[in-house]
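Example 3.2
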Amino acid sequence: MRPRVVIPDDFPSLLATSTAWPRLERWAEATRHDSLPGSVAELIRRLQGAEAALNIRASSRFSEDVFAACPTLRLISVWGTGVDNIDLAAAARRGVTVANTPGVNAAAVAEHTLALMLAVARKIPFSDAETKAGRWRPTFLTQLRGKTLGVIGLGAIGREVARLAQGIGMDVIAWTMRPSPERARALGITLTEKEELLRQADVVSLHLRLTPEVVDFIGEKDLALMKPTALLINTARAALVNQDALVAALRSHRIAGAGLDVFHQEPIPPGDSLLTAPNVVLTPHNAGMTPEVIEAGLHRAVANIEAFFAGHPQNVVGAP
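Structure, written as C-alpha cells:
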C-alpha cells in the first residue's frame, strides 16, 4: 500500500508548482492543503490518518497534543533547517522521526546576510528614500573591508558567510557550540570566546539553531560589550536576541545598527518597536527564498520521505 503523506501548510503555495509534487504523487497517497491550519485543532484534523507530514511553514506547531491525536504519524519531513516548531522530545516519545533539509539554503541565506551587512553599513535604504524624495544628503558610511566579522555558529550558513566576508576583505572570528580548531584553520577563522567576539567584532552575525539554551543569547549585557560602531545581523531566529534590549541599544546608540530577517511575531505587527528603531534594515524572513533553494529544498524533503519508507532514514534531527 502507498504511504499517506499530508502537506498541512503549503501557503503561500510552493509545492503546487514544483516538480517535487508529481514526484511525491507517483508513489504516495498525497494530500496538499494550500492554506495555513490556523489552529492546533485544524492541524490535527488535516493530519488524521497520515503516516508522514511534509512541513512547509514554521507556524504549524507540532506539539504533544498533536502527536497524541495523530497516532498513525511516523515522520515529519521539514522543508528547511529549523525545527523549533516541533516538540522533538514529544515526537521521540510518540515514535515520530523528524528530518530536515540541511545546507540547501546556505548560499542564499549567506548572500542575504552579506546584503544586510552592506545595506546597514552603507545606509542604502536611508539614502535611497532620501534621494527619491528629492533630498540630496551625502553622508559618511561604514567600510567593511579591513573590519572584523564575528560569526556566531559555524554550521553550513555560518561557514558560507565567513567565506563571503573574507572575499570582501574582512577578518573573521567565530564562536560555535562545537568548536573544531581544524575546521577553523581550514577556513582561516580564529575561534574565540563569546564575550571576546562581542568586544572585537565590527559586525556580529548570528547563525545558531534555536534551542532552549540559546533563547536571548544576545541580551542587554551582551549588547553592552559591543563597540558603539558595531552592527548586529540576524538571519537565524528572532528569539536569539532580546528585542527590548536590541531596540534600547539602537535608540541609545549603544550599537550603530542592525539588519534583521527574522522576528518574534511574523508578519511583524503594526506598532512593533522595531519599526521605529533607528538604523535598522528589515526584510520579511525571505533570506532563503530563491527559486533554486525552494526547488532543491522541496526535492530534499520528498527524498527524506522516500528514504524513510525505504527503511534508511536520512537527515534525521530527532528519532524515537
